[in-house]
């Protein structure tokens, strides 16, 4: 049986604050001191924050099938948003996280003054456009409403997907940082910005929605079958990776997990489990 720990946004915020206050302490407080990086206590569990699907699923596969052989004690904590895994990693509430891609992390670090760094790429979740009423991309017409994620990077990524499929026109050069204000031709469409995790639930209220791959799977959507259009995997910069607070990359436990996440066994698990909805994307993360 899996022993995951699910943390809601409210509870995690309180826990992170309380732990942050107690963990900082003073230099004279022995309990406040902790070893990190190469000096970390390898007998302790490596606590990793993750989105439930597919991140926690992949980590639990590693935990249940691979970690023991490598002498790795792995604990998975599930978070249901895109903010708390980073703040918990920064504060030391968890040792690492696995839920995000590089454009999102770069934007988060810049805005929140955090120092999270990627360790190893693991997989790609193609972003897709879905609808309960429209059966074909060509049937999306003026006057209809499309829901998109409201965070900077996934919102821009969503608009790029729409632009690449001629549903809108964007200003030249805006790239993945595109905002609704960068649309030069909406082609009569209306847009509704929502927190990424809630977009699937909006499908009953809008004509179409751009949904992140992990949230599509959680909503029992099959990206390869149910999407009107799906991001191309080739050359895609949005690989999801294991990340830690800067300075902890050489923690032996992190190095073990990074190796296991790029193993042949994990590659097969991803391919067999997700059937193209999630694809392996192993290797070193892209540099800023």
In short:
This protein is of the alpha/beta class and 288 residues long.
Task: Describe this entry's structure for a reader.
It contains nine helices and 14 strands. With 288 residues, the protein is of the alpha/beta class. The chain has a seven-stranded mixed β-sheet, sandwiched between helices. Strands 10-7-11-6-12 form a five-stranded mixed β-sheet. The protein has a two-stranded antiparallel ribbon with strand order 8-9. Strand 2 (46-50), helix 2 (52-65) and strand 3 (74-79) form a beta-alpha-beta unit. Helix 1 (9-24) runs parallel beside helix 3. The longest helix is centred in the N-terminal third of the chain and has 16 residues, at 9-24. The chain is globular and about 60 Å long. The chain starts with a strand and ends in a 5-residue tail after the last strand. The relative contact order is 0.19. The model is unreliable at 1-34 (pLDDT under 50).
> What is the percent of helical residues?
25-40%
Report, as a whole number of angstroms, the end-to-end distance: 40 Å
Structural class, by secondary structure, is alpha/beta
Strands of the biggest beta sheet: in what spatial order?
1-3-2-4-13-5-14
Overall, the morphology is: globular
